[in-house]
Amino acid sequence: MTTRAILIVxxxxxxxxxxxxxxxxxLKCRVTLASSGTEALRHVSQGYFDLILxxxxxxxxxxxxxxxxxxxxxxxQTVVMMTGHGSIETAVExxxxxxxxxxxxxxxxxxLVLRLEKALERSSLIRENLRLKKETRTSHVFQDLxxxxxxMQRVFETIRMVANTEFTVLITGESGTGKDLTARAIHxxxxxxxxxxxxxxxxxxxxxxxxxxxxxxxxxxFTHATQNKIGLFQEADKGTLFLDEIGDVSPAIQTxxxxxxQEKEIKPLxxxxxxxxxxxxxxxxxxxxxxxxxxxxxREDFFYRxxxxxxxxxxLRERREDIPLIADHILAKHCRKLSKPLKxxxxxxxxxxxxxxxxxxxxxxxxxxxxGILFSGGEEIQPRDxxxxxxxxxxxxxxxxxxxxxxxxxxxxxNLQRFNNAYIGRLLAETGGNVTQAARKCGLERQSLQQxxxxxxxxxxxxx
Length: 464
Prior knowledge:
It contains 19 helices and 16 strands.
C-alpha cells in the first residue's frame, strides 16, 4: 500500500510538531511540515500530497491566499483549513475558495483524525477517478490505431512519450498507415488536448491559397480580400496544427513555415505587424524528404526543424499478425456505421487478407471490408463478396472468370456498381449520411453525387 502524504502548514512550531507526532501513526501517513504559505507552495510544486492541512491566520501569505493559489494550479487538491479564530463567515469564505472542510482550534484529536480520514477518502476517490479517466482517454485515443505486434507497441510507446513534450513531430509512412490518426493521438494525449486540433491537407490546397489559409490576410491584401481573415495558425492557437503531406509544400512556403517555427509569430498577408502564436506543429509525409533535400526541392534546415521527434509507421505487410485484429475492428465499426447486423469474416477470407500485399495499407483493407459488408448476403463475408479468391499473380480469379463470361456492358456495369457502392458507401459512412459533406470530400457537386446515388440505388438514409 502506498503511504499517504499530508502537508501541514502552520506558523506555530509546537503545533506542527504535535500534529506530525500524532497524525503519522494514527493516519498511517507521511507528514511534511511548512511554517509559511510560501514554503508550502514550494513543497506542493515539488510533489503530490493527498491532503493539505493549513492554518488560516499566518503572517505574510495567510491560509486563504494559500488555498486560492493551490486550487488555481491544482484544482483537484484536497485542502482542510484550521484556525483558532473560528466563525461562520471565515468558514464560508474558506469553502468558497475551495476548501473541503474547516476545523476550529482547539480540536479533539479523535474528531480531527475522523475528519481527516474522510478528506483522505475524498482524495483517494479523486485519484482513482482521474486514473480511470486517463485509461479511458488513452483507450479512446488508440481505438483506430490497432495492433498488438511488437513494432506497433513501440509506436504506441513513442506516441505517449512525444505527447508529453512541446517539440515538433514528423510522422513518416506509406499512404494508409494512419499518419492522421497518429497526429490526433499525440494531440489528445498532450497538455494541449483541450485546445484546437487543426489539420491541413497540404497537397489539396494550391500554393497561392495555402499561404493565405495558413497565415490569414488583411482586407485589401489582394483582389478578393474583402474582409479580414484569420489564418489556420491563429485558429490552432494553444493547440496543434497538423501539416499533412508536408513534402508537397513549395520551398517558398517552407521558408515561411520555418520562420514561424523559429520565431513563433506570423504575419498575415497585407499586414505590417506580426502576431504571436502558441502552436505545436506535427507534420507527416509519405515521401523520402532526405532524397528531396538532395534534389533541392526541400530545405534541409526546415527538415531538421520538423524532424525533432520522428515517428515511422510500418506498412501493413510488415505487421501481418495485426491484420486479423484490424480487420475485426474495421468490420465492427462499419457494421455499426452502416446499421448492419454484425457480420464475420470467413476463415478463408481472413487467410487471403493476411496474405495480400496491401499496397494501400489499412485504408485499402478498410475499403475491401466495406465492400464485403455491403455486398454479402449472409452473416459471414466470403471471398466472392469482395471479388478476391487468391492473391493476384497466383492464378486465375473466379470473379474475373465470371466477369469475362458476361457481355462487355454487363461486366462494366457490375464493376461500376461494386465500385460506387464501396466508394460512396464509405463517404456516406464517414459523414453520417450527409450528402453535401460527402460530395465535398470527393470533389463532386452535390447534384452530381445524388445522380450517381440514384443510378446505383444508394440510399443516404441507410448511413444515418
